[in-house]
């Protein structure tokens, strides 16, 4: 099956009675030409058009629908050619982490550059938007004599030669310099940066 260029990857949570399962919903209401990346007894991750999503919203068996690519193809100010490389490389990187699930729903067209901080020492620095679960909560990371504050588990990635690093990993590997950490550290958010590891 070919990817829908104008489609969306959605996650459907179903509310079914004790005898029904998601395969019944798929057989009755899902276009057989649509790619289904995952299904369980009450959850489906699949591709769909806008019209199909609207029809699902009116179905009494559907509890919630979540779009995994509501910001698809956004580059965040990054060069579009570089952004395409990032999307392709991150898809390969993510799928390498789950070799038992080669048909993961995460595809390049589901990935957006949420915030692009810029290019530092030949590396691209950014937040990615992938639709994956993010755990909210304060997190502090000490790097290069500074402390960076993050409001969730979401990482700022440093991208170099098709590889992805956390900020700390990139600094420890010598890919970015202390001045780089300072420059994008102050851009994180209002609470995002502390000098000399002092909060």
Write down the oligomeric state: single chain
Mean pLDDT across the residues is: 80
Unreliable residue runs: 69-73
Query: Biggest β-sheet, characterized?
Result: 4 strands, antiparallel
Q: How would you classify the helix and strand content by structural class?
A: alpha+beta
What is the β-strand count? 11
What does this structure look like?
By secondary structure, this protein is α+β, with helices and mostly antiparallel strands. The protein has two domains: 8-67, 2-Layer Sandwich (Alpha-Beta Plaits), CATH 3.30.70; 80-195, no CATH class. 24% of the residues lie in helices and 33% in strands. The chain is built from five helices and eleven strands. The strands form three sheets. The protein has a four-stranded antiparallel β-sheet. It has a four-stranded antiparallel β-sheet with strand order 5-6-9-10. Strands 7-8-11 form a three-stranded antiparallel β-sheet. The longest helix is centred in the middle third of the chain and has 18 residues, at 80-97. It is elongated and about 60 Å long. It starts with 7 loop residues before the first strand and ends with a strand. The model is unreliable at 69-73 (pLDDT under 50).
């Amino acid at each position: 099956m070919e990817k829908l260029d104008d489609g969306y990857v959605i996650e459907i949570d179903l509310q079914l009675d004790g005898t029904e399962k998601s395969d019944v919903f798929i057989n009755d209401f899902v276009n057989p030409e649509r790619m289904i990346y995952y299904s369980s007894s009450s959850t489906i991750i699949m591709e769909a058009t806008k019209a199909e999503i609207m029809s699902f919203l009116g179905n009494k068996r559907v509890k919630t629908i979540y779009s995994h690519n509501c910001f698809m193809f956004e580059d965040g100010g990054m060069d579009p050619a570089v952004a395409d490389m990032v999307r392709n490389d991150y898809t390969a990187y993510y799928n390498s982490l789950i070799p038992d699930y080669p048909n993961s729903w995460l595809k390049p067209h589901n990935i957006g550059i949420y915030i692009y901080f810029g290019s530092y020492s030949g590396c691209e620095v950014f937040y990615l938007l992938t639709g994956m679960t993010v755990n909210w909560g304060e997190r502090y990371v000490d790097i290069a004599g500074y402390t960076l504050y993050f409001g969730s588990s979401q990482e700022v990635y440093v991208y170099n030669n098709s590889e992805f690093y956390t900020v700390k990993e990139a600094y420890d590997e010598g890919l970015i310099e202390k001045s780089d950490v300072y420059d994008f550290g102050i851009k994180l958010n209002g609470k995002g940066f502390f000098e000399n590891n002092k909060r």
